[in-house]
Specification:
The complex is a heterodimer of chains A (about 110) and B (about 110).
Chain A: E1 4-7, E2 10-13, E3 19-25, E4 31-37, E5 43-49, E6 56-57, E7 64-68, E8 74-78, E9 87-94, E10 104-105, E11 109-113
Parallel strand pairs in A: 2-11
Antiparallel strand pairs in A: 1-3, 3-8, 4-5, 4-9, 5-6, 7-8, 9-10, 9-11
Chain B: E1 5-7, E2 10-14, E3 19-24, E4 31-37, E5 43-50, E6 55-58, E7 61-66, E8 71-76, E9 85-92, E10 100-102, E11 106-111
Parallel strand pairs in B: 2-11
Antiparallel strand pairs in B: 1-3, 3-8, 4-5, 4-9, 6-7, 7-8, 9-10, 9-11
The chains are: A mainly beta (about 110), B mainly beta (about 110).
Chain lengths: ~110, ~110
Amino acid sequence: NAGVTQTPKFQVLKTGQSMTLQCAQDMNHNSMYWYRQDPGMGLRLIYYSASEGTTDKGEVPNGYNVSRLNKREFSLRLESAAPSQTSVYFCASSPGTSGRNEQFFGPGTRLTVL
Amino acid sequence: SQQGEEDPQALSIQEGENATMNCSYKTSINNLQWYRQNSGRGLVHLILIRSNEREKHSGRLRVTLDTSKKSSSLLITASRAADTASYFCATPSRAYNNDMRFGAGTRLTVKP
């Protein structure tokens, strides 16, 4: 099993450009998450999807949109990138609610917005 | 806003020594989780301790939870160079929900 995979690994954007970060899991997990990690701040939840067909905002959703394409895939879209969105983005999944279960993390996408 | 805060921010020890990291949080919780992150990698779950548990062990890891003080500690015994990583505590922002809040982490360096 590959676990949680993310593409791309690295990306450089100019301000105002758009892009979609892809995430897939092969563990048949119900819940999926998108986090961003900035230096010295730990991880902050952007959006999550408790089950296929549902999405909810996390702590820092502004400037992002998500799509739970199916049970395996959960994508994060930046419609108009800003320098403040320079960060490392992690996707995660869990069998059920993350408050009850461990989360499995992908390797991350390093995004730089110039 | 962060829920858990780890202390110290950085810790450097020799191989074979024990490493203790602390986590304090602000609101009532049902459980607390610890994760490890090697440089440039994703987080890996270490242990989950529930609010009705005071101590939990997993291999060389020992986690304690004191709900009256709103704090937890992670002890790594007989540390190895491979334990060099950042360690994070995480708590649900509300009871058993999907919004986990992570602290800023403790950066542990184990010197061979």
